[in-house]
Amino acid sequence: MRPRLRHRSAAPLLALGLVLGAAGTAAAHVEVGSPTAQALAVDAEVAFSAEGESSTAGITDVKVVLPTGLTPADLTLAKAPAGWTFTPTAEGFTVAGPALAPGTAAEWTVRVLQLPDAASLVFKTLVDYSDGHTDRWIELPQGDTKPQHPAPVLALTPAAPGARALPTDGVTLSASASASPPASASGSPSASGSGSAPAVAAGGGADGGGTTAVVLGAVAGVAVLAALVVLVLRRRKSAS
């Protein structure tokens, strides 16, 4: 009877262990949060945490794909593990450095120039380990189905009343470009003429002076040669 009792008691424990193990696997993910999670918030800090799933390998780098409305130029690294650096990429950025201890979460914070005017931001993330394994947290919910490897999502509250998007480089450049045509149109011929004429005149003066010197040198050479010819002829006449 005892063996049977032991067998029966072991079954629930085994089931519980499997449930806890599955829960632990499902709980491992990448999280994102911000104390200023509001649309159009300026100079907002966004914190990430990628859990270390491996007991034998440590996280070496994390690649993040930025959502629409954010570019790598909008971000600066505010906090990261010791020795880790921030590198912009074509789709977002990478934080990388010495491998963390196995099971240690990679935590870093970026400062964002301005959050987009959106309800939520999805940051698809790849977590690389020292043994070459990669965790891909890039899946989005499909209906009522929860993904096994969900991408971290930052929910944003509506923008504050009167909040506006900051001007971008493109706007600044277009504004300066639109301002330049009237200036050139108002005095394009005269401005270009007055601007180029001094340069041409300066170059012309220099060239003219050089030409004059050459001509004078040639004339002097001819005069000297003529004098020599005359001197030779006189000597011949006197000798005869």
Instruction: Please give the radius of gyration in angstroms.
Output: 39 Å
Order of helices and strands: HEEEEEEEEEEEH
Strands of the biggest beta sheet: in what spatial order?
5-6-3-9-10
The helix fraction, in percent, is 40-55%
- Coarse morphology: elongated
**Measured distance between first and last alpha carbons:** 160 Å
Share of residues in strands: 15-25%
Q: What's the number of extended β-strand segments?
A: 11
Class of secondary structure makeup: alpha+beta
Annotation field: number of helices: 2
Look at the structure and give the mean pLDDT.
74
Low-pLDDT runs: 1-26, 170-209
Largest sheet, if any? 5 strands, antiparallel
Explain briefly what this protein structure is.
The chain is α+β, with helices and mostly antiparallel strands and 240 residues long.
Structure description:
- This protein is of the alpha+beta class and 240 residues long.
- The protein is built from two helices and eleven strands, in the order αβββββββββββα.
- The strands form three sheets. Strands 5-6-3-9-10 form a five-stranded antiparallel beta sheet, with no helix packed on it. A four-stranded antiparallel beta sheet has the order 1-2-7-4, with no helix packed on it.
- Strand 9 and strand 10 (134-137) form a beta hairpin.
